[in-house]
Amino acid sequence: MINIIVVGNGMVGFKFCEKFISKLGQEKYQITVFGEEPRRAYDRVHLSEYFTGKSADDLSMSTLEWYDENNVILKTSELITDINRETKTVHTHHEKSYSYDYIVLATGSSAFVPPIVGVEKEGVFVYRTIEDLDAIMAYAKKIKQNGATEAAVLGGGLLGLEAAKAVRDLGLNPHVVEFAPRLMPRQLDKGASDMLQSKIEELNIGIHLNKATQYIAGETQITGMMFAEDELLKVDMLVISAGIKPRDELGRLCGLEVGVRGGITVNNKMQTSDPFIYAIGEVALYNQMIYGLVAPGYEMADVAAEQIMQGNKTMRESIDMSTQLKLIGVEVASFGNPFLENDNVTAIVFENKFSGIYKRINVSKDGKTLFGGILVGDSSDYNGLFQIYSNALALPQDPSDLILGSRSGESSTMGSVMDLPDTAVICSCENVTKGTICCSITDGTCETLSDVVKTTKATSGCGGCKPMVVDLVKEAQKSIGKEVKESLCEHFQYTRQELFDIVKINKYTNFYEVVDHHGKGDGCEICKPIIASIFSSIYNDTANKHVTTQDTNDRFLGNIQRNGTYSVVPRIAAGEITAEKLIVIGEVAKQFDLYTKITGAQRVDLFGAHLSDLPKIWKILIDNGFESGHAYGKSLRAVKSCVGNAWCRYGMDDSVSFAIELENRYKGIRSPHKIKGGVSACIRECAEARGKDFGLIAVEGGWNLYICGNGGATPKHAVLLAEQIDKATVIKYLDRFLMYYIRTAGPLVRTATWLDKLEGGMDYLKEVIIHDRINICEALETEMETLVGTFECEWKQVIEKPRLLERFNHFVNSSDKDDNVEYVPMRDQKMPKPWN
Amino acid sequence: MENILDKYTTVLAADVTVWFKAGTVKDFPSNRGGCIKYKDKQIAIFNFERRNEWYACQNACPHKLEMVLSRGMTGSADDVPKIACPMHKKTFSLIDGTNLNGEEYSIATYPVKIINDEVLVGFIE
């Protein structure tokens, strides 16, 4: 048996064990781990979550059983005091000796405490271990009871800002004190740091830059920090997070070569000056540098494990220090060389002080290579940029597209993950390549995303690569012909179309019947509204029938707005309205102090109605001949029309009458997504009918019928279904088309997307709707007839049945309105107070 | 703005000093939420009849600080009962208020008990 002793049980020491036991031939070795802390290795990257309720166990990286199962001996609370390199033995503070063949030093680092007078005072802490955190929490609690409010953090680096958040979570006002003239000086340039500073200051965290602390004030307890020029910052607690100091004592003691400023020198095999002793993680000095990030530490662990087993893996020459994280809620990322600027390199900088975004990329003068960059405020481009940088991929024609997005109408500037080479590292923490992820699916080792995560460990570090891993797994599954099942959510393994048939065949009328028989759990915000909509589509139930499973808009029959109030949109079919009715709308808006705006669907939207005012508003509207406009529903919204031949000198037909007829025919019918229609009286197309789910244009000899268009995020023109048909045929085709769509579309899929995905496309749809190829037209028409014949205004139902009114109170135990709603003036009206 | 949330801290049943009568069982329709007023607080109460359980939490969604959680939809995630905010579908565990979308903010929860058809919510003050 070959004995390996691992000194230090931190993240990197643990990773060494994990990597080692996963390698072939590991049975010949016995690993013994010594940790001076009483705990098993824990996740220090997420240490601050200890303040927000995570327990020490949550942070633990393994279980006791893990050590047993893998035959790794763990000795916690046992400190190695000495290494005798002659006899190849180590000694512990329990006066025990163990012999070794190899030693792996993973002692990590301790907090660097600058030599400031008074740092020994009560109330001064370092931020490093769970024990430190426990002590900080206890002290904060004590001083808060005595009325203390202010605390300082020394160090404006990454960890310092983490500590500031922790201090804030403890209910104290943090002040960050930094010696350098900017925050995160190692990762950010001045512009990025300024942006970060202003975002952090908005959160009432004090930032004090360029401050050299002369001494810590106070008798026995800290009462303040004295800076140069007699400037005193009054604080009752100080957390020091000013950098790290390698724990190289053991190495020094046994005469290993160490750096001038600490750290045990290693070569690219992670060997120290004694070939039987390895050093990894924050104690190792590689290329004259200490690397304080997890990813290089893990890589060192792997190299050392390989080397001990006589493998030939070595550490890369240059170590990537790219990092992406969220600091006090602000996204920050830097990659490659963030500062690089010389004759061959140009920095492209985008700064938006309004939304607090700073982006910088360093690009070669010829526009072909990306060297590095910085992102503050919005790091969503990080994964894409990092892949381009680390794989030296080609840049777009205009490299500024990389941070500004393409402005020429072309699609994504980053390309797809599938375009990356197999060697591209997707998960930098665990060093997992695209090839490894895809292979794990294609060679049959893994079936699902969670299998891949378990096997490759991708995403288990910082988690930033998750979106890319999800995409890769999906594509790899497709590539081996595995059906990627589009099930609704964790409660149903069915598509919407399958559920539609299940409900119809079994005649279910209650959500829980469906989930009990065909799903599991209690449902969620995804499946509940879908099934409620299916009920409505099949039985023409109004939204009042399935209150519990409707989303808020359908539950309260209004569109929820930014401040939790609702908007009111009465139906104004085809946009035709009398002066009397316009006056009613105006009076209502005045009486309830509502913001009014004309919508794109030729009607009037009244905003800012309190929940409890909704029934009162609708009572007046309905008494004056209005009805619900279903602006809140996944259903027909409106049929827009031009004025038509009644007035227009070009009009070929009466577009308004036809639009009113169609709007009244299909109103209230629930569908997978909203439906809009349009009717134009001539090819000038003033109603923009081809931008709708169905559109009609009057031509010589009848109507041209177009379907499956929409505006919105991905505008699409509707496609011609039939030419020069009469009104009766229009209605026949529309009935069939809409019902077929309602039956078969996925949830929240508009008609255009539905058509895109329909096998056979428009030709097939014509076959179904016009030539009845699959023999369902009669059924579709009958179903639509039932729906059309049973329309009821759901708002009328509410105001006529007191039982239905109960849900329109903000409070159960009071008739008060929501007192959190605040308005600010806007032009001659009002708007909700802006969000922070 | 942050101070709205300062009013809400999770209360454990063992620490309750005041059991506030929020209403009777029939005031809270099954499987959805209702909001009650207690001093300057708005508390959402859920009669999760399907699970035969009651829950209470702050009514303010910590994402945009609007008083809307009682109007959200109940559901479960891996059998953990949850509430989805109607604004942007942020979801939270009703057991301990954890954010189930992996974001930072979470919600405060309060104990509920039913005695003789009365719905009682526990507070410390």
What this model shows, in words?
The complex is a heterodimer of chains A (836) and B (125). The longest helix of chain A has 18 residues, at 727-744. Chain A is elongated and about 105 Å long. Chain A starts with a strand and ends with a strand. Chain A has 836 residues and is an alpha/beta fold. In chain A, α11 (434-442) runs parallel beside α13 (466-479). In chain A, strands 3-2-1-7-19 form a 5-stranded parallel β-sheet. Among the domains of chain A are: 2-109 and 246-308, FAD/NAD(P)-binding domain; 124-242, FAD/NAD(P)-binding domain (3-Layer(bba) Sandwich), CATH 3.50.50; 322-415, FAD/NAD-linked reductase, C-terminal dimerisation domain (Enolase-like, domain 1, 2-Layer Sandwich); 643-800, Sulfite Reductase Hemoprotein, domain 1 (2-Layer Sandwich), CATH 3.30.413.10. Chain A contains 26 helices and 38 strands. Chain B is mainly β and 125 residues long. Chain B has a single domain, classed as Rieske [2Fe-2S] iron-sulphur domain (Rieske Iron-sulfur Protein), CATH 2.102.10.10. Chain B is built from 1 helix and 10 strands, in the order αββββββββββ. Chain B has one helix at 3-6, and strands at 18-24, 33-38, 41-48, 53-58, 73-77, 80-84, 91-93, 109-110, 112-115, 118-123. In chain B, the strands form 3 sheets. Chain B has a 4-stranded antiparallel β-sheet with strand order 2-3-4-8, with no helix packed on it. A 3-stranded antiparallel β-sheet of chain B has the order 1-10-9, with no helix packed on it. In chain B, strands 5-6-7 form a 3-stranded antiparallel β-sheet, with no helix packed on it. In chain B, β3 and β4 (53-58) form a beta hairpin. The longest helix of chain B is centred in the N-terminal third of the chain and has 4 residues, at 3-6. The mean pLDDT of chain B is 90. Chains A and B meet through α17 of A and β2, β3, β5 and β6 of B.
